[in-house]
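hey so i finally got around to running the thing on that chain from the lab meeting. sorry it took forever, my laptop kept dying and i had to restart like 3 times. anyway pasting the input first so we r on the same page abt which one it is
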Amino acid sequence: MANLNKVMLIGNVTRDPEIKYTPKGSAVTDLGIAVNRVFTPDGGEKREETTFVDVTLWGRQAEIAGEYCKKGRSIYIEGRLQLDSWEDKASGQKRSKLRVVGENFQLLGPRPTGAGAGGGSEEDYSERPQRREPQSGGGGGFSSGRSTAQQPPLEDDDIPF
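ok and heres what got predicted. didnt touch it at all, straight out
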């Protein structure tokens, strides 16, 4: 039987994320996002529904989110669903919560202006593998992937799917 656990959301950050570290040193951050849905029921009056989603990011993703995500900022999150279960100490009842474990994210919209905001174009803050590109001078190695030189066009054989 086939299985798929994939979530893609676009929403607004509801609170500034706070980075924490596990005893082994892994970064983790929890952030909330609000996802809006606008629809028109049979009555014809337009309505809006908001769903609040908790997202957990790990490792470098958590550190980047802690630095750049701010309350109100639009964000795209890609990840998977995870069900957390525990027993409530106060009442003894079993509790559970569905959350998204983010595997990739991208900040949307223009960068905020003001103190600490740099200029430039919109950036993808998701953690992606760096492309190996030849560097002038024969030094080799990895480049930042943000070269001002024009990239050669992709051939059909370069596309992995």
